[in-house]
Fold L-threonylcarbamoyladenylate synthase.
Amino acid sequence: MSTTSYNCTNDEQRAAALEHAQKAIAAKQLVVMPTDTVYGVAADAFSPQAVATLLAAKGRGRNMPPPVLIPRIGTMEGLAVDIPDDARKLAEKYWPGPLTLIFHAQPTLDWDLGDTVGTVALRVPDDQLALDLLTLTGPLAVSSANRTGQAAAQTASEARVQLAESVEVYLEGGFRPLEGTDPTPSTIVDATGLRLRVVREGAISLEDIKRMIPSALGPDVEPEIWEPANLAKAEPAAEGQEADAADDGAAATAAEGDAPAEPSADTGDTAADDETAAEAPADAEDADGDEADSGAAATEEEPEPVTLSKENPANAAS
């Protein structure tokens, strides 16, 4: 595979870079891009092949799915269901920005981000180059641009040292967040339970979250499981089985054993490893961009079947 790097601080190269990056994503190839936290490695969220390539490039398995970066808050409606009002309030205040939200994924979507348990971690990055690319491509699965266990890349050049020719296009936009500063991962909030729960504190503190949402839980509090109304009076489970109380699949909030793995800081498998989107139920902030890997769970009502194509979710959000 040939690899091309562009200096996106140069207007002429920037235009050519975005065009090449858009074509690479369409061809199921990988692109390294800056975000407001660290650099992320991106793939078409609706291409299982592309997502598998991303995971392989980072050296991780399906148990660490990447989060999804979106161009605008409205795109959330096409990718998630059962969105709590409190989560909407946080999105309206902090997006674009370092906040990753974990939701139940829209069940009608044709995608495979890994072992997400029916959830998805979403974030709108506060970076113009990233937003310009997302506007051209639609939702992208993004994880921090580094090999798992290695330091998160703060420039495209640093990312290239680790990812080499596994990536088709490198978009160099300078240091992220700023030269001489350490990367701070996004804050990951699980919105799949009875109450919002901060899975990981990052750029936005728990205190800031609780100022807006007093009922929000901290990462050290046992999550409360949501039980769909239509299962409340269900007959006892068959012998040898435990009744699935409810949100048995919500990523990052289920009871011990039922809950999906918590997001790995995505875009930073750790705060740094995946801090672009989020690796929580979804790699919630993998690249912080990674900052958000996803997973899913049962919903109170089965939504009416909706046929959502790859383009629809992104466009529905305008």
